[in-house]
Amino acid sequence: MSRLVDRAVLLGYRAGWTLVRRLPPRAAYGLFDLIADVAWRRGGEGVGRMRSNYARVRPELDGEALDALVRRGMRSYLRYWCESFRLRELSTADLVAAVRPVGHEPVVEELAQGRSVVMFLGHLGNWDLAGAWGTTELAPVTTVAERLRPEELFAEFVAFRESLGMRIIPLTGGEDVFRELRNVLRDGSAFVPLLADRDLTRGGVEVDLCGSRARMAVGPAALAVTTGAVLFPVTVHYERHADRRHTATAGWRIVVTWHDRVLVPGEGTTREKVRAMTQQCADALSTTIREHTQDWHMMQAVFVDDLDPARIR
To answer: What domains are there in the chain, each with its CATH number?
Structure first.
């Protein structure tokens, strides 16, 4: 049964990559809006977790307003998938037009001077689109991907992202990820964005996120401390394109915002420095998550009160 389920998942993703790419953009986006609305009405574990997460970061909302926000969240999440399936169809001009960068000038300067940059990202907006843009406009991206089931699906995701110019390191099942990233960053002018708003390793730290305690990964901060790479929190959210004639993404684009550089504290143990830097990154994410909650595609438990105690050290 497990093999049958894995096969069905693989065929579903392959169909998405093949069929959705052939649809006109507005038809494709409209289809995914419909899928999002159906999923929202049916509920389910993932939708329920999204609702719970949204309720924590937006406690002022009543039930009706929260439900409407979750519906927008599901539409944003399915927009991410629609765009990801269609990314290979975008020309360089389409890709550039689909992204509005904010505050990236310091990153350009650091890379030009031969310094490596590591970025702390959340599951916000479309990080694949942001990565493809970064590879095209700034520097080739090296990042880490969570291993998926079935293995064939993970291999296709890796091949897809590498076709966009990114280098993908598997989170598990390969070499020591931290050591490999450390070597990449020490080579100079490396560009490493990492999704870190969810702790997948049990080695994370507890931070304040939108007023609640949450667990986040320490990788970005730890790499900055140990390699001297420059650390920036980065957030991504959707907005309507200023030029409605831009049809490749059906009138949508992402805003990629680089927040202030996070400096390594002058005092404290390595763990204390990493914790403080991760909290600064969480603070930057908190602002965007509150303002653009629907673009936070978090359908897993991240808040301490929701986590299995076995996952918390």
So the answer is: 90-311 (3.40.1130)
